[in-house]
Amino acid sequence: MRRSLPPVTSRVSDTLIARGHHGVIVTQSEPTHTAEQAAQALGVAVGAITKSLVFLLDDDPVLLLVSGAHQVDIERTGQRLDGTLTRASAEVAREVTGQPIGGVAPVGHPTNLPTYVDNALSGHRELWAAAGHPNTVFRTSFTELVRITAGLAIDVD
Predict the structure, then answer these.
(1) pLDDT tens-digit map of 78-119
(2) What string of DSSP letters covers the chain?
(3) Is the pLDDT reported for residue 5 higher than 60?
(4) Taking the chain, what is the end-to-end CA distance rounded to the nearest angstrom?
(5) Rounded to an integer, what distance in angstroms lies between the CA atom of residue 39 and that of residue 37?
(6) pTM beyond 0.90, yes or no
């Protein structure tokens, strides 16, 4: 029996397919709100988990796709992006992505967010990212992730 996906996850799948990805979404039996939980559930290294984090660069929302093994050094990463970087509130993140915290996908948002992809993700052959809901994920690669998000690869400390 096929389980239906939450509408937000269906939107992520549709966006993935429109951008040349296979669009396959994996549903976990339990929500995975953290990179560590997702890595454990999938049996992969935490660095292969792609965290989708919303920040404000100056006053504009941006999406940082960060290795699960990294924390964002706001000052240094802001300097790399030629601005002041601050973490967006949960309300702003939900508004600009249309997705719940703990399930924010790299794609499928109401508007295209400027996206930056952590170079550390390139060290993993296979990456996993949230698919719009805390218990859904999809598999990708670094090259594909940069392509489907029209992201810019940067170093994130």
Answers:
(1) 999 999 999 999 999 999 999 999 899 999 999 999 999 999
(2) -PPPPPHHHHHHHHHHHHTTS----EEPSS---SHHHHHHHHTS-GGGEEEEEEEEETTEEEEEEEETT----HHHHHHHTTS-EEEPPHHHHHHHH-S-TT---SS--SSPPPEEEEGGGGG-SSEEEE-SSTTEEEEE-HHHHHHHHT-EEE---
(3) yes
(4) 44
(5) 6
(6) yes
CA nearest to 135, candidates 108, 109, 103: 103
What is the average pLDDT across 147-153? 98
Per-residue pLDDT, 3: 62
Q: Distance of alpha carbon 19 from its chain centroid, rounded?
A: 16
Contact 67, 51 (CB under 8 A): yes
| Residue appearing with tokens 């794609």 | 107
Q: How far apart are CA 99 and CA 111, in angstroms?
A: 12
Taking only the tens place, the pLDDT of each residue in 9-64 is 999 999 999 999 999 999 988 888 789 999 999 999 999 999 999 999 999 999 99
Residues in contact with 52: Cβ distance below 8 Å, sequence separation at least 6, in sequence order: 63, 64, 65, 97, 104, 105, 106, 129, 130
The answer to whether residues 68 and 38 touch, using CB atoms and an 8 Å cutoff, is yes
